[in-house]
Write a structure and sequence with these properties.
Blueprint (H helix, E strand, L loop, with lengths): L17 H5 L3 H16 L3 H4 L10 H11 L11 H4 L4 E3 L19 E3 L19 E3 L19 E15 L4 E2 L18 E2 L5 E3 L4 E12 L5 E13 L2 E2 L7 E3 L7 E5 L8 E8 L2 E2 L7 E3 L9 E8 L3 E2 L1 E4 L13 E3 L7 E5 L8 E8 L2 E2 L7 E3 L9 E8 L6 E4 L14 H16 L19 H16 L7 E2 L1 H17 L15 H7 L2 E5 L12 H10 L9 H6 L6 E6 L3 E5 L17 E4 L3 E4 L7 E6 L10 E6 L6 E4 L9 E8 L9 E9 L9 E8 L4
Parallel strand pairs: 1-2, 2-3, 3-4, 4-9, 10-17, 26-28, 31-37
Antiparallel strand pairs: 5-7, 6-7, 8-9, 11-12, 12-15, 13-14, 13-16, 16-18, 19-20, 20-23, 21-22, 21-24, 24-25, 27-29, 28-29, 30-32, 32-35, 33-36, 34-35, 36-37
Helix pairs in contact: 6-7, 7-10, 8-9
Length: 706
């Protein structure tokens, strides 16, 4: 016999049944087995010896063991425990063996070859601690886990198992009997069986014969190899069943007046659906469409939908969705009031389901307004250019969680540069008063005492920023409270040192890490040598100064450009009596909103009516919201109202400070007096990378107090 062969597989031509080796026919073997069984069952002295005799459940295995002990033994001669312990090899291929019960007494067995039998259970081998080689191909084995406990096993070949399972109804599910060496589920493959995702079971949804195949392998602890494969054949009976029948879901909000939609999921192809909506599990009369608009009759009830899938030749299947939370009454809120600076808006929430707890949040251009959570809201300059709405969220145990939004107001408008009276009113009512507010700083450079800036000063500074932005149709910004204190620390540093720098030295007076961090992310202004309470470098006055950007080091108008960055939504400020820090970005860059207005062009002085008090002393600029705009080759001309061309000097273009911008110095600008106005026509050509290659606009300077 072949005891070790390639991949642990015996050479098939050398396998020999026990009956063939003895020259016996199977019929004779069966007859002898019956006789031996009869003798052992008698109450004779021989029966007493049975206590030391191995009991084999299968006569064919009994005969094989006797043949291994001696060629001269009878096939069914009793085998004692001692005799069984002498067997180290057993070759019983194609012997018609159904059961290995009794093999547990072959305690010194090293090699076992039992291929081409009908063996289904390997558990009798679990105690054979010396078993090294096992060949058991062409059997009916589905569970290899009994072999895991064998410490000496070096080769285990369970190839080509042929398993037939009982007929399965098309409506039933078959538990998967396949187990690996380690005891885990082996997931079979099949072209027709629907194996579950976990592999723990399968369904046969059409009548007929189905096959499933599997293959598993593993390395044994002694370096050997384990292989296990085969085919399961199983018949199915009954009407054909749909294979993919997912549980449907519902889409939408369980609110009176809202519409729910049935979502069947992905079923088999060519399946037609019908629907029945349920309230508290009971059918809703007439609600048989894919959608259901919830009426007051469904208030306080849970809603589900039953979806029936049908296909010719298949049994129809009905699946019901999970129930929604209870249906709630949640009306659309209404905002009352006029959206203008200083106006008070109020929210009317309407009547919700009794016992619902409501929370409110005000929004400007779909961005939540920090801290605005009451039933009323007062409009500030931060909302300039934005539409306001309120969202009301309701929570009641067991009911759908709903948030309802009001219609948005019209946009908040601080001014319109197309109207002289609008610009004049905004300047006189907002900006001019802001310029007169002192900082109210309570700190001191002596001892580096930080103190505080007054709320009135911060509000005035904010209003100045937002009026300037409104001159170019830009949305308002807010001051982030977390940025204000670091900004004030930097202003304290600047005033104590009488120095402007974005990178202050640690060795100087009043240094702080937060102040130094703010310096690197801010516009900076210092008005040393001016002792008045309205220092031009502080509060709202600093904002006008940033827009002027005076001096030869500011010809690219970087401070102006950050104030006019369209996407920015947050800044921070801190003013002492001589310095201002205007923070324009956080540690991770600017805080922006995709909802902010982004006009194609932003001019300074801005197009339309323009207060002469904001004249930037000849440093004019044009910016673009388009990041691809390139002004390097652009040319600019400025003509006065009589058509005379003014002297213009274009400065080199430097990008990287807010929006892409070109700046130039214009000479010959005359400021108006009294009620008169001065017109200047600006034409820029040669623009690259933007939607337009040229742009022309008119600045109409006037005195708001004229």
């Amino acid at each position: 016999m072949c005891t070790r062969c390639l991949w642990g597989t015996p050479v098939w031509g050398m396998m020999m049944s026990t009956a063939a080796r003895r020259g016996l026919r199977p019929a004779a073997a069966v007859a002898t087995a019956s006789l031996v069984g009869a003798l052992l069952s008698l109450g004779s002295p021989g029966a007493a010896l049975a206590a030391d005799v191995v009991v084999f459940a299968d006569p064919a295995l009994h005969a094989a063991v006797n043949a291994q002990l001696s060629w001269e033994r009878e096939p069914y001669e009793p085998v004692t425990f001692a005799e069984a312990a002498t067997v180290t090899e057993l070759y019983a291929d194609d012997d018609g063996i159904d059961s290995l019960v009794g093999a547990e007494r072959l305690t010194n067995l090293v090699t076992l070859s039992v291929s081409a039998n009908r063996i289904a259970d390997l558990s009798p081998l679990t105690g054979l601690t010396k078993l090294r080689d096992l060949w058991a191909g062409y059997n009916r084995i589905v569970n290899a886990s009994p072999l895991e406990s064998l410490p000496a096993l070096e080769n285990a070949s369970l190839w080509a198992q042929e398993v037939t399972l009982p007929t399965l109804a098309t409506t039933a599910r078959q538990a998967n009997p396949l187990r690996s060496l380690a005891g885990g589920v082996i997931v079979p493959d099949s072209a027709t069986a629907l194996v579950s995702a976990s592999g723990g079971s399968w369904r046969l949804t059409t009548a007929g014969t189905h096959t499933l195949t599997w293959w598993a392998s593993a390395s044994l602890r002694n370096g050997g190899f384990f292989s296990f494969d085969g085919t399961i054949t199983q018949a199915a009976s009954g009407p054909s069943q749909l294979s993919r029948t997912p549980t449907p879901t519902t889409g939408g909000t369980a609110r009176v007046g809202s519409t729910l939609s049935a979502v069947p999921g992905t079923w088999d192809t060519d399946v037609a659906f019908t629907y029945q909506w349920l309230a508290d599990g009971a059918p809703i009369a007439g609600a048989t469409g894919k959608k259901l608009t919830l009426a007051s009759a469904q208030h306080r009830r849970t809603i589900s939908v039953a979806v029936t899938g049908s296909k010719p030749g298949f049994s129809p299947v009905t699946k019901t969705s999970a129930a929604t939370a209870r249906v709630i009454v949640a009306p659309v809120p209404v905002v009352k009031g006029t959206p203008k600076l200083g106006a008070k808006l109020t929210a009317s929430t309407g009547t919700w389901t009794a016992g619902t707890a409501l929370t409110l949040q005000w929004y400007a251009d779909r961005v939540a307004i920090p801290g605005a959570r009451g039933t009323s809201f007062t409009v500030t300059s931060t909302q300039s250019g934005k539409k306001i709405f309120v969202r009301v969220a309701g929570v009641k145990s067991g009911y759908a969680k709903v948030a309802m939004s009001s219609a948005a107001t019209s946009g908040v408008t601080l001014l319109s540069t197309s109207s002289r009276s609008s610009v004049a009113a905004a300047y006189k009512r907002i900006l001019a008063p802001a310029l007169r507010v002192t900082t109210g700083w309570t700190g001191s450079t002596s001892g580096c005492r930080l103190g505080t800036e007054s709320a009135a000063s911060r509000l005035a500074t904010l209003n100045a920023v937002n009026v300037i932005r409104a001159m170019n149709q830009l949305d308002g910004v807010r001051f982030a409270s977390a940025w204000n204190t670091p900004a004030l620390r930097n202003s304290l540093m600047m005033q104590a040192r009488n120095q402007i720098t974005h990178y202050p030295s640690r060795s100087g007076a009043c240094w702080s890490s937060s102040g130094a961090s703010a310096a690197a992310r801010s516009n900076l202004y210092l008005g040393s040598g001016f002792s008045g309470s309205l220092n031009y470098a502080t509060g709202a006055r600093a904002i006008v100064g940033y827009m002027d950007d005076p001096g030869p080091s500011n010809i690219v108008a970087g401070h102006r450009r950050w104030i006019m960055e369209p996407s920015i939504t947050a800044m921070g400020t801190g003013s002492t009596t001589q310095a201002n820090t205007l923070t324009v970005m956080g540690s991770n860059g600017p805080v922006i909103s995709k909802y902010n207005a982004a006009p194609s062009w932003m001019e300074w002085p801005s197009a339309g009516w323009f207060p002469k008090q904001l004249d930037p002393e000849g440093l004019w600029s044009l910016s673009s919201s388009d990041p691809g705009a390139d002004f390097r080759a652009a040319k600019v001309t400025v003509r006065n109202g009589s058509g005379t061309k003014l002297s213009v000097t274009k400065y080199p273009v430097a990008d990287g400070y807010g929006p892409n911008t070109m700046t130039w110095k214009v000479k010959g600008v005359t400021l108006p007096k009294g009620t008169s106005a001065r017109r200047y026509v600006v034409t820029v050509t040669g623009i690259r990378g933007a939607a337009a290659t040229s742009y022309s606009y008119t600045v109409k300077m006037f005195d708001p107090f004229g």
